[in-house]
Structures are given as structure tokens and as C-alpha cells.
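User: Please write out a complete single-protein record containing the residue sequence and its fold in C-alpha cell form, without commentary.

AI:
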Amino acid sequence: RYQVLKFGGKSLANGSGIQHVQNIIQAKAKDNSALAVVVSARANATDNLLLLLETAKKGMDYSQLLQSFQEYQCAGVPAACLEKELTTLQQLLEGVKLLGDYTNKIKDRVLAQGELIASKYLVYQLQANHLQAVAIDSRTWLKTDAVFGAAQPLPNSKDNLQGIIKKLHGKIPIITGFIGSTLEGETTTLGRNGSNYTASLVANYIDAEELQNYT
């Protein structure tokens, strides 16, 4: 049976944090444990994204803030690895700056980039250390209502996740916490402590033996 490991933002920070996470996953993989990993956005990514949103909303120049965010999040991986998420983020911020405002729907799309980046980042690092890992975007399985910023899961999410897990063939899923999507495919977030909520759902849906929460 699966062990679900959930890693919070500070534990995924650059340097000893991310290294420690890799060591934990490697050690458990050596024990032949079936693992599923749920990640939050790395370090202060969520706070940084909120600051970027507010700066763009005021019509101010956010380029330096965005540059700092990119440099931190891309440290140790090729920029191309995260190009999709960073391009999406830039486009969303440009739209907010033009409008001078943003909705909760746009906010969810912006904040989601933090978890998407974290998942891809960790997969890259694990693969570089010869571990078979795969990034799982929770928007593909965690279907929710359309209450942006505080979405609730829909019942079909369980079958969706079980279907994905069955096709992994021994690869370790690195699952984005905090985010889901409506039946129409619009990005949602689960609100405060959303990544812990995701980890609990994952553990429940795949009938995990244990859920370990690393902060």
C-alpha cells in the first residue's frame, strides 16, 4: 500500500531544504515503498505571487519582482523546464496590469503556478538522481465546484485519481497540492492549507497506509 508524503513550502526551499526532501524520497524508494508525493509551492512562492498580483493591479512595474521570482524558482533546473508556467504567469500579470484589477478566478490561475512549478522542479531533481518520477497536475483529476479561492472537490475526483495511479507503472507521482479545476477546466484553488487538504484526499482516494506531513 502507498505512503503519501506531503512537503510544505519551506521544506522545498532552495539549498538544504530541497536536498533533504530528495534524500527522504530516495531513502523511501530504496525501501521499495510505494510512494505518492504532494507538494506545496516552494519557499515563499505564494506570497511572492500575491505581491506580483497587487503590484500589477496598481499598474506598477513588476519586472524586477518577477525576475527575482524566476531566478529563485529556476535555480538548479534549466529555465526551459518551467517555461510554460513562467510564460503563463507573465501573460496573466500583463492582463491584470492592463485592467487594473483581478478576479478570484484570475488569482487562482496565478497562484496555481507556484504548485505547478514545485512539482516540475522536484521531478527534474529526482530524475537527475536516477529516480523515476512524474509530475501530476491535480487539475487533471481533482474536479471541484466553481467557488474560486475556496473550491470543494466533486465525487468523481476519486475515480479520476485511481485511474492515473494505475498507469504509473512504478513511477513516483509528484502531485500538485492546493489546485484543482472545474468540470469546464477552469483552474481553482482549495483555500488556506489547501495542499494539506489535497494530501488528505490523495491518501483517502488511494487507500494509503500512511500520510506523512513534512513542514
In short: The mean pLDDT is 97. The first strand starts at residue 2 and ends at 7. DSSP finds seven helices and seven strands in the chain. Residues 141 and 161 are 5 Å apart (CA to CA).
